[in-house]
Amino acid sequence: MNASDTRIAVDAMGGDRAPEEIVAGSLRAAEALHCRILLVGDSRRIGTLVARHPARGRIDVIDAGETVAMDEAPAAALRRGTATSMGKTIELLRDQTADAAFSAGNSGALLALATIRLRTVAGIARPAIATVWPARKGPLLLLDAGANVDCRPEWIAQFAIMGTAYAQGVLAIARPKVGLLSIGEEEKKGNALTEAAFALLSRAPIRFVGNVEGRDLLLGDVDVVVCDGFVGNVALKVAEGAAEYLFSSMRALAMASLRGKLGAAILRPMMGALRAKMDYREYGGAPLLGVRGVCLIGHGRTDALAVENACRTAARAIGQDVVGAIGGMVAESVASPSL
Amino acid sequence: MNASDTRIAVDAMGGDRAPEEIVAGSLRAAEALHCRILLVGDSRRIGTLVARHPARGRIDVIDAGETVAMDEAPAAALRRGTATSMGKTIELLRDQTADAAFSAGNSGALLALATIRLRTVAGIARPAIATVWPARKGPLLLLDAGANVDCRPEWIAQFAIMGTAYAQGVLAIARPKVGLLSIGEEEKKGNALTEAAFALLSRAPIRFVGNVEGRDLLLGDVDVVVCDGFVGNVALKVAEGAAEYLFSSMRALAMASLRGKLGAAILRPMMGALRAKMDYREYGGAPLLGVRGVCLIGHGRTDALAVENACRTAARAIGQDVVGAIGGMVAESVASPSL
After folding, report:
1. Which A residues, 175 through 204, put their C-beta within 8 Å of a C-beta on chain B?
2. What is the DSSP code (8-state) at residue A154?
C-alpha cells in the first residue's frame, strides 16, 4: 500500500487533552506521513481546529455526536454502538473505510469495542496490549500489558506469536528472541501458569529463549517478553514509578544546594535526552494485537507528539501487514505437528 | 529483653562473599548493638577471622562442617539437617539457643528449612518474604516478595496482618496503611485473586486502604503492600532493574562529553546519597514473616555492612516481639465475628 493511500481513523474526542491535541497531532501526522486521517467526533469543533491548516486536504471529518466517558463501563460503551466517537472510529476500521484506528480514550471500552466489533484473528483467543520498552539493547516489546488479568497458558503462547510478528514488522527485528516473564531463569522457577506456558512456548514456531526476570525488561537482551496482563501491567507501572521517583529525587537533591543547581544546569540537556527516551510519547500508542485490524491505544495524557508517533506506528504496522503476519504464524503453529 | 542478652545466629558460610564479609559484619554488629552473635560454619576458618578482634568476646563459634550450595534443591538441604551451617543456624533458633537467625545463602533452602523446622505461627498458612522499599513517603513494606508463587486469597489477608505487625514493631509506624497491589484503584480492577483478597482484607483487623498500583510502591502513601509472591518478585526486580538502568544510562551520557563529566563530578556526592538509599544493604536482610522466630534472608551479594544492618533489624524485631504481635493479631482476626 502506498503511504498516501493509508487511512487512519483517529478518535478526536478521546483522552484528557482532546480534541485540541488530538487534532493537532493528526494534522502533523498527515503532513509528515503523507497519509489520510479520518478525524471522528464533534465535527463542528474539529472543523474549527482543522480550518486553514496546510494539511487540511488530507483530513476527513466524520461526525459522531457522543463521547465515551473515561470512567464509563465497557458494556455501556458497547451499547451505544457507533453513536460515540470511539465506537465510530472502530467501525471505520471494521468496514474497511480506514486501515487503522487510534484512540486515547477509555482503554477498557476501546478493548471491548475492538474485541467485539473487529473480532480476533483466527486461532487467537484474546487480544493483548503490547508496550514498547526503551531497553538497553534497543526497543523491547512486553505483552500483555493489561488486557487479560487471568490468562490461560495457551493465550501466553499466542501472545508470543503476536509479539514476534509485531517485532519483525514494526520494530524491524529479524528473528526476535522471546522470553517468558518469571522469577528465575530455570524452567521450574515460576508459578503454575508460567510452568504450563513454558512447555507450550518451547514448541511454538518462535525463537523462545526461556524465562527472563523483571530486570531483563530494561537490561536483558530479549526482544519480546510475554506474561499475563496483570503481571505486565504491574511491571509497567513499577517501571514508570521508578523512573519518576529517581528523576524527582535527583531534582530535589540537586535543587537543595548551590552546588547541586550548578551540576544540574550543566547536565540538563543530557537528562532531557534520557527523559525523552523514557517518555510514553516516544511510541505514541500501545498496539492491541490479535484483533482483525491495526488498532492502537493511547495514554490518557496523549498530546500532539504522541498522536503523531502513534500514526507513524500505525502506518508501519499497515505497511508490513502485521495482522496478516499474525494470522500466518498462528496457522503455521496450528499446522505444526508438535503442538 | 536487654540488648546484651540478644543472641543472633548467623550462617557464616552463606552468600557469595562468605565467610569473610559475613564474619566481619557480625563482629561490627556485636560491637555496635552490644549483642551476642552465634557464628555457624567452618569453626577453623571462622576462628581465624575472629581472632584478635576487639568484639571477639561477644562471638560464639558453632561448628557445622557442611555448606548448602547456592543451587542445591531445598529438599536436599532439608535432608542434611543440622550438618550444614544453614540447617544448624535455623536449629539454634528452633531450640531457643538464639533469638534470631540470618543467612545470605540459598534462599529457597532457607525458606524450606525455616518453614519445616520452625513451623508457622498458629493461624498463618504460609510464611512470606517481606522487603523494605525506600518510598518517597518513607520505608514501605512489600510482601510477599517471592516465597509463595501461587497464593490463596486468605494467605494475602494473612500477609497483611504480618506486614502490619512488622511495620508497627520494626518500622515504628503506629497505624500502617495497607494496600493491595493491583492494576487500578477501584475494587473491581484486578484479577480473580485480588478480587477475592480485597473482600477478606476489608474485614481484617488492619487499616486497609484498598487497591494500589505499581507506581505506589515508590510514590504512594501506603505503608504495607500485599500481593502474591510471583507478582511481588517481578515488581522487586523491575524496580531494581529500572534503578540500575537509569544510573548506568546517566553515567554513560555524562561520560560521553567533557561537559557531562564536569556535571557528573559536581553532582557525584548527591548521586551517591541517592544510590545508597536504593541500596539493598540499607536494610540488610528481608524478614521471613509468619514463622515462629525472627528469621532474615540475606541477598547473595551480602557484605559486612548488610550483615550489620540485618542484625540491627533482627534486634529490633526481637525487642518489639514481632512474632508475638503477629500471633496476637491473627488470634484477634480469627475471634472476630466478621471473618
Report:
1. 181-183, 190-192, 194
2. H
